[in-house]
Write a structure and sequence with these properties.
Blueprint: H1 3-16, H2 22-46, H3 68-88, H4 93-96, H5 99-103, H6 117-124, H7 128-147, H8 160-169, H9 176-186, H10 190-220, H11 254-257, H12 265-273, H13 299-312, H14 314-327, H15 334-337, H16 341-352
Helix pairs in contact: 1-2, 1-10, 2-7, 2-10, 3-7, 3-10, 8-9, 13-14, 13-16, 14-16
């Protein structure tokens, strides 16, 4: 389990166990959920639609054997059912906000009963954009419920009538692979539900999603030029596990994900001009497009690297990056190359000797 998330989860569980620190514990939980949800947002914003139904670990034993789309559906269907049908006793977000139709889902269940090709086909039919909107809506509605809970509410338990109501609702499949969830949830009190569906369950499935997207990125980058259009080395980027690179469909670079068409301005400009990369452009030193914008602290470090590629070629550039990482401990090149593009270029040339 992610160390930071694990520590936050442990702290949250400790805090909500005492009346004096209960509210602080809820705050800690909301912060944890926000951090984990950022990973889902990055995946939705950074990857092509095909990524959401692919199964790179098909047949494996574990949550990573599913798909990205299924994982999102599963996390938030469970939360929606538990938060609304069980704890609050009102309508689920899936129905109250018409997300069943919007997402195009053919099921209302948690999906536990699906396996193999059934998961893939289910995922292919989902509208990923609306699925993400559903996830956000469930997250926000659950957090409103959490913020209105009192310490005394944590001790509330559930009855046989609650079990029957869930069973009759059809939101949990009656198949053996899924129906156990009803006994599991109703065997806990509210505190127990907070500790699993609303926190640890997220972590387990989002970590599985990370494994899926890492494998997809790795596969996408096979045989692809690792030198980015702007001059970065995708082999050495701190986002390398997250990003397939701007020469693939799995481009999770921040300047791509924040662009309306998900194409970095540097990439778009190079393609329009027929350049292999910014290092072929005579205007690179004064350019302020995309990654080269004045407000980006890595702009001149990127330009320095592009100038190095222009002078010495890609092969030498990749080798000098290997040497940089042998000599220095850093995650972002601007930590070593600084903010002056000419000094940055000098550093690269010195290491290249």
């Amino acid at each position: 389990m992610n160390k930071e998330w694990s520590e936050q989860n442990k702290e949250m569980q400790s805090l909500i166990g005492k009346a004096a620190s209960f509210k602080e514990g809820i705050k800690c939980l909301l912060e944890l959920r926000s951090s984990v949800f950022e990973q889902i947002t990055s995946i939705v914003n950074g990857y092509p639609l095909e990524a959401f139904w692919k199964m790179p670990f098909k047949g494996a034993d574990g949550y990573h054997s599913k798909t990205l789309a299924y994982s999102i559906w599963h996390i938030f269907r469970i939360e929606d059912i538990v938060a609304h049908s069980l704890i609050k006793g009102d309508d689920q977000i899936l129905f109250s906000k018409n997300f069943l139709k919007k997402t195009g889902s053919r099921i209302v269940t948690t999906g536990n009963e699906l396996e193999g090709d059934g998961i893939m086909e289910f995922s292919k039919n989902l509208n990923v954009k609306e699925l993400y909107e559903y996830a956000k809506a469930v997250k926000l509605s659950t957090e409103e419920i959490l913020q209105n809970l009192s310490f005394e509410d944590l001790k509330r338990t559930f009855t046989e009538d609650d079990k029957k109501r869930l069973f009759d609702s059809g939101c949990v499949s009656h198949e053996e692979s899924a129906v156990w969830l009803i006994d599991y949830w109703c065997g806990k009190n509210v505190a127990g539900l907070i500790k699993m569906p609303f926190s640890r369950h997220w972590i387990m499935h989002v970590e599985a999603m990370q494994r899926i997207k890492n494998r997809l990125c790795k596969e996408a980058r096979k045989g692809v030029d690792p030198v980015a259009y702007c001059g970065f080395s995708c082999n050495h980027c701190f986002l390398s596990q997250w990003c397939g690179g701007c020469r693939t469909e799995y481009n999770a670079c921040s300047f791509a994900t924040c662009s309306p068409d998900k194409i970095c301005p540097n990439v778009k400009c190079c393609r329009e001009k027929g350049f292999d990369g910014c290092y072929e452009c005579s205007e690179i030193e004064t350019c302020k497009k995309g990654f080269y914008a004045d407000g980006n602290d890595g702009a001149n470090a990127a330009k320095a690297q592009a100038l190095f590629v222009s002078k010495y070629g890609k092969k030498a550039f990749l080798k000098v990056h290997d040497k940089l990482h042998e000599k220095y401990d850093f995650s972002k090149t601007q930590e070593i190359l600084g903010q002056d593009l000419h000094k940055g270029l000098e550093i690269l040339e010195e290491v290249n000797k």
